[in-house]
Amino acid sequence: MSQVIDQPSPPVTSPAADYAAEPWRVHYGKAAMRADRLRPFPLFDMLLWAERHFPDRPYVTFQDHTITYADALAMVDRLAAGLADLGVGRGDRVGYCMANHSAFAVLHFALWKIGAVVVSMNPLYPVSRLADQAADAGVKAILTTDEPEVSDRFLALAKVEPQRPRIILARHDAGDLEAAPRLSEQARATGAVRLSDLLTVGSDVPTARVDTDDLAALAYTGGTTGAPKGVMLTHANLSMNCQQMRSWYPQLSAGVEATCVGAPMTHIAGISPILNFMTLLGGEIIIQPRFDPAGLLQAVDEGRVTLLLLTPTMLVGMRDLMESRPIDWSRVKLIQCGAAPLTPELTRVFRAITGQPIVNLFGMTETSPAVVYGMPAAPGGELATGCPLPLTRVQVRAKDDPSRCVPLGEAGELCFAGPQVTRGYWNREDENATFFVDGFFRTGDVGYVTADGFVHVVDRLKDVIIAGGNNVYPTQVESVLAEHPAIAEAAVIGTPHPYRGETVKAVVRLRPGAELTLDELQQDLAGRLSPVEMPKVLEILEDLPRTPNMKVSRQALRERERQLTGVDGPGAAG
To answer: Which domains does the chain have, with CATH numbers?
Structure first.
């Protein structure tokens, strides 16, 4: 009679335990593995460090005027004194509402020196929305420029209760912050002051004793998912996030790097991956007032740029110029792309031209913004969004039950925790409970994490098209459309269908001289999309609507579709 030997049962694991094991750490480099040594710090300390080590290094270049780190620190001290003279102190909020400008850097560090809070306000928003933000944040002052079409429009904000903020005007067409801006009679009547005058008050204001848990910024979300909300970001959030980024890029060196910025700096990317990251590196920030692809490529060709942070929209704008003439990319060490999903076709084109892989960035205002960075050189990483940054925790939760984690490899709602994650929304305690579960922030993005630790972001939960009970992810369809030779840019939305509920509609901008019909498109895409993913409706526009942050706005397209069809269907929901 044979003896039955009990075999030990395999250990029972749970999805939550699998995520807690952090399988992505096997892909980390040495610097990322040492990230547990990172500590938060007051943000003003970063400028002090950079000025001490690189006083004569160019810091900000704008309108052919360069400010060194020594210049910047002296100007920050003077502006801090001027702001204090206006009554701005620790914990007070001050708005920044202007196109890209060298004043961006000086204002942020001046506010952080005195313990005040910067409030990002997008100048492309209607004044009514900006007034709501100013009232919600309770700003004491707002910095903008003296362009008549800008400053006169914003003077109405001086009447916003409860603070009735002072309007501060900077010269829009001068890199020298001491250049006196135009001050109209209307501006004088509202009590507006010149930035150049604030720089003459003195420089003796003491540095505030700032705790790293103190608020540093209120960054208002772009509003593509509803009314804009003020995201509370602390000195710890922002100082840790730029250090997390630094640990990802050992090829970058302090005191030698430079970038050129064309994307709107009022976006969270302007604060963290641009201003703070470059200051932490002792790097130079070359600022374009607005995105100019030819000017950016010229800076690259002249060897003035070593790293870039771009968006897919910017890449599309650069592509034709890059294909028409050679550009010297030899000094560029790093090309990053964020704000929206990057299609494989754009990735292929840019790698072929530049010889460099493009590093995907994924994040949001609520995460300072970076939580996932690409690893295109890692086996299996070229098709993924990337891996969580050091000290970042991720879980994927069931779309219909956020209290439950789903197993590795299964799609659900991506949720993140870490030192860069906001503590919540300003004046929105009721919503904070909804957006956090067990200490993890719910992103509203659909994605999954593979067993070897790669994060794949699939789409926005609210953008998913449900056609006959099947989930269609617009980003996946858009990636295929982007490879079509006639299509310059594409967006995919749902349109009402009497049987399926929704069906797929492609809205495209064609390349110059190209023509395309729905039949031709369907024939060309046969075998590359499933029948349920195949566009059943094609619309060609001269340009696609965009958010103020340069993303293609599916929300605007859905609203337009609702008006065209007269149907408040699920695909048209905002």
So the answer is: 17-41+222-460 (3.40.50.12780), 44-211 (3.40.50.980), 464-572 (3.30.300.30)
